[in-house]
Amino acid sequence: MIKMNDVYKTYSNGVTALNGINIEIGQGEFVYLVGPSGAGKSTFVKLMYREVKPSRGTIHINETDLSSIKEKRVPYLRRNIGVIFQDFKLLPKLTVFENIAFALEVIQESPRNIKKRVMDVLDLVGLKNKARFLPDELSGGEQQRVSIARAIVNHPKVVIADEPTGNLDPDTSWEIMRVFEEINARGTTIIMATHNKEIVNTIKKRVIAVEDGLIVRDEHRGEYGYDI
Ligand code: ADP
Ligand code: ADP
C-alpha cells in the first residue's frame, strides 16, 4: 500500500537527506522508523504526506502516485493520511472539540454527524469529558491524544507519527502507545519515527533503520539497536 522506489531527496541547500530508498509497507502494518539524528527519518515521513517532494524516485500510497497529485489535491491526500507530531500542533484558540471538527471534511456533514464523529474519536482516546477545554488547559499527554483523535477522525488508512512521544514522560508515552496499538488493531497502518528505545524493544514491531539517508536494517519484530 506504501511503496517507495529509488527515492532521493536533496534539499535546496545541497544537503542530501535520502540516498536511494526502496521500501514496501503493507496495509495494517506497524512500523518503527529509527536511526541517529540527521539520518533522514523526518524527511522519510514528510515525503509520505507530501510535505516534501522527492528529488528523484516515486512514492505510491494506495496505488496513487504522489508525484501525480496536483497541488490543490494535496488536502484530499492529507485526509487519507493522519499525521501526528512531537509538538502536537493544535490550534491554541480552539477547543478540543473544535480542533478535531476542524479536521473533518465538514462540507456535506450535518452538525449532528460532526458531533457524533468527534465525540466517537474523543471516546477512543479517553477524552470525552474534555471536549470544551482549550489545548493549554490539558497535559502534554492529553494534548497528544487530541492530536491523535484529530489524525484519525477521517478514518485514514495510514497514520504517520514523527516522534510522537518525544515531549512526553515515560508513563504518558506508554499510554500513547496503547492508543496507537488500538488504532492499529482496527486495521490502520502506523509508521512511527522514534528515538524511544524502551518502547521499540518492548512493543515489538517491524523496525526500519535509516542511516545517512539509506535503509540499513529492516526487521520483523526488530530491536531499536542504538544506545540513545
Ligand atoms: P532525522 O529526522 O533523522 O533527524 P531529517 O530528515 O530531519 O533527519 O534530516 C536529514 C538531513 O537533512 C539532515 O542533515 C538535516 O539537516 C537535513 N534537512 C532536513 N530538513 C531540511 C531542510 N528543510 N532544508 C535543508 N536541510 C534539511
Ligand atoms: P451528550 O450528547 O452526550 O449529552 P453534550 O451535548 O453534553 O453530549 O456534549 C458532549 C461534549 O461535547 C461537551 O463537553 C460539549 O461541550 C462538547 N461539544 C458538543 N458540541 C460542541 C461544539 N459544537 N463545540 C464545542 N464543544 C462541543
TrEMBL record:
Keywords: ATP-binding, Cell cycle, Cell division, Cell membrane, Membrane, Nucleotide-binding, Transport
A GO molecular-function annotation: ATP hydrolysis activity
Bilayer disposition of the protein: Peripheral membrane protein
SUPFAM superfamilies in alphabetical order: P-loop containing nucleoside triphosphate hydrolases (SSF52540)
Domain of life: Bacteria
InterPro entries: AAA+_ATPase (IPR003593), ABC_transporter-like_ATP-bd (IPR003439), ABC_transporter-like_CS (IPR017871), ABC_transpr_LolD-like (IPR015854), Cell_div_FtsE (IPR005286), P-loop_NTPase (IPR027417)
Location (main, coarse): membrane
GO-annotated biological processes: cell division
Domain ABC transporter, first and last residues per copy: 2-228
Stored SMART domains: AAA
Gene3D superfamilies: P-loop containing nucleotide triphosphate hydrolases
A GO-annotated cellular component: plasma membrane
Compartment list: Cell membrane
Entry-linked PANTHER family: CELL DIVISION ATP-BINDING PROTEIN FTSE, IMPORT ATP-BINDING PROTEIN
NCBIfam families the UniProt entry points to: FtsE (TIGR02673)
Annotated family: Belongs to the ABC transporter superfamily.
Function description: Part of the ABC transporter FtsEX involved in cellular division.
Assembly: Homodimer. Forms a membrane-associated complex with FtsX.
Protein name listed in UniProt: Cell division ATP-binding protein FtsE
